[in-house]
Specification:
globular, 9 helices, mainly alpha, two-stranded parallel ribbon
Length: 179
């Protein structure tokens, strides 16, 4: 049974997601967007099986475009896949992330786990994904408890500065209805 602290969420298959999106974008008086982790997206999602590999930002844009195309390019849908998962944003400031999880002495170790990678470059491998790196240094870290605190301490401006894919999505959202 998957519940409580064992529940991981995520998109289990594209048909479920597609069904929800089709229903939502049917209301053409509203804009619809997504905020879905790119990490762990199922292979049946458009673009996943033939996406370019190497540069994560190119692969994620390819998949976003494939989803948009699969939905017949609705004008009221802005697909967004978070590179690679929410925890990547927390690598904007590993020291604040460590402090938020009450492990302020682990900031340097958390920073070292990312090396020279920017937050959105941290890969999606099952052993080195952002969430796995955080848990390897901060085993008591809980995404829903410590994550929001860390994000608030880091601040949206700093996250946007270090995460260009995330920033471009927010910029698009901010531009809706502005003429």
């Amino acid at each position: 049974m998957i519940n409580g602290t064992n529940f991981k969420g995520g998109v289990t298959n594209y048909n479920k997601l597609r069904s929800d999106l089709v229903r939502l974008i049917g209301d053409t008086d509203a804009y619809v967007t997504s905020l879905i982790d790119y990490y762990g997206l199922p292979e049946d999602c458009p673009g996943m099986s033939d996406r370019p590999v190497g540069i994560a930002s190119v692969g994620v844009k390819y998949v976003e475009d494939a989803i948009l195309e699969d939905l017949n390019n609705p004008q009221n849908f802005l697909p967004f896949l978070l590179l690679h998962e929410f925890e990547a944003l927390l690598f904007t400031d590993p020291y604040e992330t460590a402090k938020a999880s009450l492990s302020s002495d682990k900031g340097s170790e958390l920073a070292a786990s990312a090396g020279s990678l920017t937050p959105e470059e941290i890969n999606e491998h099952k052993l080195t994904a952002p969430s796995k790196r955080i848990l390897s240094v901060l085993p008591h870290f809980r995404k829903t408890l410590h994550g929001p605190t860390a994000a608030k301490r880091i601040g949206l401006a700093r996250i946007r500065e270090k995460c260009p894919h995330f920033d471009s999505w927010l910029t698009l959202l901010e531009g809706i209805g502005v003429t």
